[in-house]
Amino acid sequence: MKGFPEDFLWGGAVAANQVEGAWNINGKGVSTSDMQLNGIHGAVTQRDTDVECIKDIAIDFYHQYPEDIKLFAEMGFKVLRTSIAWSRIYPNGDEAEPCEAGLAFYEQLFAEMAKYNIQPLITLSHYEMPYGLVKKLGGWINRETIDHFEKYAVTVFNRYKNQVKYWLTFNEINMSLHSPFTGVGLEGNPDEQQIYQAIHHQLVASARAVKACHDIIPDASIGNMLLGALRYPMTCHPKDMLEMQKKNREWLFFGDVQVRGDYPAWIQRYFSENNIHLDITESDYADLMNTVDFVSFSYYMSGCSTWEPEKYEGSRGNIIRLIPNPHLKASEWGWQIDPEGLRYLLNDLYDRYQKPLFIVENGFGARDVVEEDGSIHDDYRIDYLRQHLIQVKEAIKDGVQLLGYTSWGPIDLVSAGTAQMEKRYGFIHVDRDDQGNGTLIRRRKDSFYWYKKVISSNGEYL
């Protein structure tokens, strides 16, 4: 393989709770994301109609998606990753019947994408779930939540079986270890026993969704999605090597279960030594054998691990605290830039799982300046993406089977971590600031035209 495959899926990725807005109209219920007014790192706030949040409108994708899809098509997108807001379909999570207005919205969205031959890549749960299931059941700690998720998945598979052929179950499923409310709907300060039990239920639900997808849409592919939290050893000390292996296994565990269909021996040792006793039934083990068709992941940065962390100052990525690598530069948000790490990770994941891979998030957040003539010169974003795509190309030459690449996010959106607009990722600028001021007018950045050339040349132009 000399370069990107002819059928390579180029595109971008967004999430419902970060772009749609329309948080409480047309029957939509309150989601866990709606409770996080200041993002993942903020406190959980009880919502009512008098409390406002920037995500309530976001970039108004709910109403403006035809314009945005047209812009994506102008860039040449082959695929667009987005998510379905579970609480648009089942507002409280446990209704007998789904909300028709919610189902109709996504049907119209997918039809709009089809006009431009853009494939939908749809995440079933992207950092949100109906808050009603948290209030009533306690979130994913309750086994009943599995059934409600399975019902939701079956509903959307049946409704969109002729429109969507690429699916993901849970976004960055391993992040529940670091933000349990966002990932598994656990309020307060849950302990590891509670977190891993909730995670187990979510893994079973993911496997059941895989089976339902295979049964209902035989020509579809369904994958998992990991937060690619790559660690290097801080030094070549053997104890640093073991610490690196431990830290990488913490997130690879989720891939191991979803790809191999069972719990690895090392995590069972960890459970035993940390007094974690999971309720796992025989039917759970049978469900877990329904494994994913491909492995998708996000990649923004890497970090280091050491057995002597007190010697080093930590830095935070979006969710996970990492020890900085002295050989790498960082963005203004402290995210270290490591293109070669993406090549390493692609090879490592492919060697480990021998499944097709899909890079479904990779991007550069920065403060952009709109010039007097309306232009936006974001050479820093182009350079970041170029350097990473060069390494993606090298990984393909290494023999990695890669389905596609969806940059995060092709249009400016609300940050998941901090609920900001000023931390911009897009090829398309949206006129809205952190205080919610602005016209919502869309503008093409320099990176828009660059990415258009990348796609039209199938990655030859970088």
From TrEMBL:
Gene Ontology cellular-component annotations: cytosol
Its EC number(s): 3.2.1.86
Pfam families xref list: Glyco_hydro_1
Origin: domain of life: Bacteria
Record keywords: Glycosidase, Hydrolase
An MF annotation (GO) of this entry: 6-phospho-beta-glucosidase activity
Family per record: Belongs to the glycosyl hydrolase 1 family.
Entry protein name: 6-phospho-beta-glucosidase BglB
